[in-house]
Amino acid sequence: MLIAHPCDVRYLTGFTGSNAALILPNSSELRKGARAPRSVKPVLFTDGRYIQQAKQETKHAGVIIAQGPVLREACAWMVIHGMRRCAFDGEHTTVATLDMLRRWIPGKQRRSFFQAVPALVAGLRERKDAEEITRLRAAAQLGCALFEDLLTRIESGKREVEVAAHLEFAARTAGAEGMSFETIVASGARSALPHGHATGQRLPRRGFVVLDFGVMFQGYCSDMTRTVHLGRATMAERDAYFAVLEAQMAAIAAVKPGVSCGEVDEAARGVLRRAKLADFFTHSTGHGVGLEIHEGPRIAARQLQQLEPGMVITIEPGVYLPGRFGVRIEDMVLVTRSEPEILTPATKAWIEL
Ligand code: ZN
Ligand code: ZN
Description:
CATH architecture of the largest domain: Alpha-Beta Complex
Number of helices: 10
Bound molecules: zinc ion
Strand order of the largest sheet: 1-2-3-4
Helix content: 25-40%
Structural class: alpha+beta
Low-confidence stretches: none
Distance between the termini: 54 Å
Radius of gyration: 23 Å
Strand content: 15-25%
Number of strands: 19
CATH class of the largest domain: Alpha Beta
C-alpha cells in the first residue's frame, strides 16, 4: 500500500515533513523469485530537505532520501522489488497524480498495478489512543484559556480582524504551533454566516459575536465555538441562544458507544425542530477532530456509523437567520465507555458584554 497523505504518514511513522511517500509492503505480494526486500519493513521516501528530520522522527520504517519526485522513487522501488500491485488511498490522490504513478510503472503491469482502496488509515485515526487524547486535551484546554482571555478584549468598535489577531498572537505565544483553521469572528448580521471569517468590520453596539477557532498543539487540533452578545439582546436572540444551547447539550448527552452518528445529530435537530428553528440549522452537528481539523466520523443526519470509545468529535449545532443574526456553540467531546468527556469546558452561560 502506498500512503502519501502527510497526516496519515505522520500517524503511522511520526514523520512530520510535508513531502513523503510511505510504502507498506506485503510479503505475499512479492513475485516468486523477485529480489525480496530483506524484511517487509515499511519504507518512507522523502526529499533532501528532510534528511535529518526524517532520521530523528521516523519510527517503524526505513528512510530513503529520493533524488527526484518521491512518488517516482517509490514506484521504482516497488518495481525493483517485484511488487505486482499497490493499493492507494483514492480519497487523497488526484487524477493527475494517478496518471503520473501509472506512467512510472513499466509495460503491461501499468493498467492494473494501482488499485484504489477506501481511506484505511483515516478509519484507524478515528479512535484515538491515550497519547493522542492527552494532546487533544491539552490543545482543547489551551483553546479554553484563550477564550477566557479574549472575553476581556471584545468591545464594540473593535474590528473583527483585531479580535482574531489578538487570539492568534496569544495562541502562538502560549505554545501553539498555529491555528487549526482560519479563525471565525462573525459579528452582528455577519453572525448569520456559518463560516464568517474575520473581516475589517467593526463589532456592533448590539448583536452577537460568533467566535469559532482552534489551535494546533503537538500536531493535534482543537476546535470550539462560543457566541457572546454585545449590548442588550432581543427576546428572539435570547430564545435562539438557549435553543441552540439546549440542542447542543442534548446531542452531548446522546454521545455513547454504540449510538449512531445520525442519532446524535437527531438529538440536536429535534430540539431545534421543537423550537421551530430547525430550518435555520443548515449544517451537520459535528465531525471528528485529531491531526486534522475535520476527520471521521461525520456527525450528520442518517449516518449509521456507530460511536466508539476513543473517538473525539465536535458537537456544534447552530442557527442562522439571514440578515439578522446567528448563534453556534461547539465543544470537543471524547467518547468513553461511560459518560462523554467535554474537552472544552469553557463557560456556555449567556454572556452580555
Ligand atoms: Zn469550529
Ligand atoms: Zn468544528
